[in-house]
Structures are given as structure tokens and as C-alpha cells.
């Protein structure tokens, strides 16, 4: 799923001209490349300056073991913090003061100035298209609540949407827009001032976000969707080892040369549709099968038989409905279950999911209700589309039965 401002979108890769895939990186297994290491080292050298290095070596000498260890190993978590002003010993003073902070995703004039410069210089936006309202909608709006989670080992982990702000000599020069979730750091957007473009700020921010995921226990780093036929997305392959989510089976695959070759051949990739000669079974990440299977509700015998016996006719009906929809210039909407969208729970599986106890908010000043409290709810079926029960079934199929147990559908937002 993709979060865009206050909305969460689930896209149908099968129908897309340029399918986009979810990818992620295990921060604990990440090994920076030589180019990435050099990028960090060059930036650190720029920040502290030659004079600081020489004078600090004289005033604060390191042992031979410390020097040998630094020269022979590259610890990402240590190296990305190395030139921060708070980490430097003084005297002497560095050539520049680098301060990096994690701040609430709120509007400020200095953030807006960076946004305006980035949109103008990098994206060639016209000045009249750059407004404070656009910045707020795009980079300050989020449905996530900021809170602190207590982990099992007694540590605290902050959650919510944040701006990772990079300041050089007191001036804000870059902003990383991050969603911090219980088990991941999700990179939403990154923008920077043209004055630091020569330092490869995109690489620096990605490496710092990976380090954040490792240091704070989030583990996974999500760099956003990967679109294989978009040249601007190819840089995401530079961070490895990464995994790509099979949109059909919801299994995580190693994003290796085999997967990339298949993506060269076809825009939509799925384990369940791969040809026998190009099987990707060996690419499934170890330990992910149980997680994938747990996302599917258990099916009883009757529903299982219905799904198996009606499979071919269901596909035929879906094909016919797609053609009918394509021929309809009016763009009449169709049930989500007839779109063959990959990754959603099937209609047969939905018949076994408890839809009766989902919380409803019908009015701001009244208590919460359950879906089963709705008039005529029990007489409706998930196949009665369009209809309230069918619509809620579509929502649950998209977000998954597990998530649906903890959601509340707000029908009072228009009040």
C-alpha cells in the first residue's frame, strides 16, 4: 500500500501500464557498497575539514587499535554520525556544523524554503505552482498518530510521521519525510537545497535511514515503490540485499538477477504466474512462507470446494466483466472482486471472515456501533454489490482480515 497525504492507496499492478512493486531492505544485513562508503567518507571530510582532522589528531590522539579498527571496518551506524557536531570533540572547531534532528511533520517557513528551492531546481515547477498549502498537503499531512511504543526489551521506539531535518551551519538544507512504524522506517519523500547537490544527498539520506532502522530496532527500510521500467527508480537496486513483494502470493522474494531478468521480459511479475522454466521458488526469503500463509484466513470445506469448482467460471466472468467495462465509455464501477486485483482476499475467503463485529462511527456525538447493528445487515451478502456489506467486504479484502479487527469505519466525517 502507498500512503499519499491522508489517504492510503492499494493499486492494481495487473492493470497498470507500469506496475510498481513494494521492496524492502533488512537493515541488519545491509552491506554498503564501495561507492556508498566513499560518499559518506567524502561528506564527513567536507564537514569537519582538513584542519580539524589534523588538530584533533594532535589534541585527542587515538590508540593504534582504534585507528586500525576504523581503517579496516566500516560501521554504518558509527560512520553516518561521525561528522555530527554533537559527536565531535572540541577544540578545535570543524569547518562546518552538521546537526540532524527528527522533528514532527509540521509546517515551518524554513522547511517551505527548502521545498520551494527543490521543486523549482529539481522538478522545474513554476513559482505559481509552489504554495504553502501544497507543501502542507503533500508533506505535512498524515493519518498516523505520533506515539511512543515500549518494546519487549524495555526500549522506547517512536512511531508516526516525522521530518528528518539536516542543518549545515544553522541552515536547513535537506528534509527526509519518514513514516516510523513498529517494524519499519518508510521513506516517503526526500528533498534538499541545491547548495548540497554535489554531496549526493539522496545517497546520504538513504544510508542514514537504513542506520536509523538498525539502531532503533525498526529493522526494515522501505524505500518506496520500485517501478522497473522507470530509469529514475533504478538507484534503489544499489541497496542490497533487498526483497520484492510478490503481489499475488504476498511472498517476499530476493530482488536478485533472476527477478530483474523476468521484470525485463514482462511488466507484471508474480510467482503464481511465472512460467515453469522461470520459477522463482528458490528466491523466496527463508522464513517468509509462514508469515505469508498466516495472512490468509482458514477456509472450511464448503467454501474451499466452491472456490475450486467455480474457479474457471469465476475467471471467465471476470474476463467478461473487464471487457464490458473497457467498452463502457461511461466508466461504470465494478466490484473489487471482479477486477482480478492481485493480493486481495478472494470472495470465497471473505465468506469465512467475520464482518459482523467491525466498529462503526455513525455520529460524532454517539457511541460506536458494530456492523451487525446496521438495519438489514444479516439479510445482505458480500456478493450483493453495490451494497454496504459488499463495500465493507471490499475494504477488508484490501487491508486484510487481521487489520480489520482493529479498525473503525468513520461514517461521520461529512458532518
UniProtKB/TrEMBL annotation:
Q: Which GO terms describe its molecular function?
A: arginyl-tRNA--protein transferase activity
Q: What class of enzyme is it?
A: transferase
**EC number(s) on file:** 2.3.2.8
**Domain N-end rule aminoacyl transferase C-terminal residues, every copy:** 110-246
Q: Which domain of life is it from?
A: Eukaryota
Compositional bias (Polar residues): 305-317
Is this entry keyworded Transferase?
yes
**CC terms in the record's Gene Ontology section:** cytoplasm
Supply the InterPro entries for this chain: Acyl_CoA_acyltransferase, Arg-tRNA-P_Trfase_1_euk, N-end_Aminoacyl_Trfase, N-end_Aminoacyl_Trfase_C
Start and end residues of each stretch annotated as Disordered: 300-335
Q: Print the keywords alphabetically.
A: Acyltransferase, Transferase, Ubl conjugation pathway
Q: Name the SUPFAM superfamilies for this protein.
A: Acyl-CoA N-acyltransferases (Nat) (SSF55729)
Q: Which reaction does it catalyse?
A: an N-terminal L-alpha-aminoacyl-[protein] + L-arginyl-tRNA(Arg) = an N-terminal L-arginyl-L-aminoacyl-[protein] + tRNA(Arg) + H(+)
- Family recorded in the similarity comment: Belongs to the R-transferase family.
Q: What does this protein do?
A: Involved in the post-translational conjugation of arginine to the N-terminal aspartate or glutamate of a protein. This arginylation is required for degradation of the protein via the ubiquitin pathway.
- The name on file for this protein is Arginyl-tRNA--protein transferase 1
Q: Tell me the organism.
A: Moelleriella libera RCEF 2490
Amino acid at each position: 500500500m502507498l500512503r499519499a497525504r491522508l489517504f492510503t492507496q492499494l493499486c492494481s499492478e495487473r492493470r497498470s501500464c507500469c506496475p510498481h512493486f513494494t521492496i524492502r531492505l533488512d537493515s541488519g544485513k545491509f552491506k554498503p557498497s564501495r561507492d556508498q562508503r566513499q560518499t559518506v567518507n567524502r561528506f564527513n571530510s567536507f564537514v569537519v575539514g582538513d584542519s580539524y582532522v589534523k588538530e584533533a589528531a594532535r589534541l585527542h590522539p587515538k590508540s593504534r587499535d582504534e585507528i586500525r579498527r576504523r581503517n579496516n571496518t566500516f560501521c554504518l551506524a558509527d560512520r553516518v554520525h561521525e561528522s555530527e557536531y554533537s559527536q565531535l570533540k572540541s577544540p578545535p572547531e570543524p569547518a562546518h556544523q552538521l546537526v540532524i534532528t527528527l522533528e514532527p511533520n509540521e509546517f515551518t517557513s524554513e522547511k517551505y524554503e527548502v521545498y520551494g528551492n527543490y521543486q523549482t531546481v529539481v522538478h522545474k515547477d513554476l513559482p505559481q505552482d509552489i504554495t504553502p498549502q501544497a507543501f502542507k498537503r503533500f508533506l505535512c499531512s498524515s493519518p498516523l498518530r505520533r506515539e511512543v511504543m515500549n518494546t519487549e526489551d524495555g526500549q522506547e521506539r517512536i512511531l508516526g510521521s516525522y521530518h528528518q531535518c539536516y542543518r549545515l551551519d544553522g541552515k536547513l538544507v535537506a528534509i527526509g519525510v519518514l513514516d516510523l512504524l513498529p517494524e519499519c522506517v518508510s521513506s516517503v519523500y526526500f528533498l534538499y537545497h541545491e547548495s548540497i547537490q554535489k554531496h549526493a544527498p539522496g545517497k546520504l539520506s538513504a544510508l542514514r535511514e537504513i542506520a536509523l532502522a538498525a539502531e532503533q530496532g525498526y529493522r526494515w527500510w522501505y524505500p518506496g515503490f520500485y517501478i522497473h521500467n522507470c530509469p529514475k527508480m533504478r538507484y534503489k537496486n544499489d541497496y542490497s540485499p533487498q526483497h520484492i513483494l510478490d503481489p499475488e502470493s504476498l511472498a517476499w522474494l530476493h530482488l536478485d538477477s533472476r527477478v530483474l531478468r523476468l521484470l525485463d521480459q514482462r511488466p507484471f511479475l508474480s510467482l503464481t504466474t511465472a512460467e515453469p522454466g522461470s520459477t522463482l521458488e528458490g528466491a523466496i526469503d527463508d522464513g517468509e512462507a509462514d508469515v505469508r500463509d498466516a495472512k490468509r484466513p482458514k477456509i472450511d470445506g464448503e467454501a474451499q470446494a466452491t472456490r475450486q469448482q467455480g474457479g474457471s467460471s469465476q475467471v471467465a466472468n471476470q474476463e467478461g466483466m473487464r471487457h464490458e467495462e473497457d467498452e463502457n465509455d461511461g466508466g461504470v464501477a465494478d466490484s473489487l472482486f471482479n477486477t482480478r486485483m492481485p493480493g486481495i482476499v478472494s470472495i470465497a475467503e471473505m465468506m469465512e471472515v467475520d464482518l459482523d463485529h467491525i466498529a462503526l462511527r455513525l455520529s460524532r456525538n454517539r457511541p460506536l456501533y458494530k456492523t451487525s447493528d446496521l438495519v438489514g445487515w444479516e439479510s445482505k451478502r458480500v456478493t450483493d454489490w453495490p451494497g454496504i456489506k459488499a463495500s465493507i467486504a471490499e475494504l477488508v479484502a484490501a487491508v486484510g482480515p487481521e487489520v480489520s479487527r482493529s479498525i473503525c469505519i468513520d461514517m461521520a466525517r461529512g458532518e
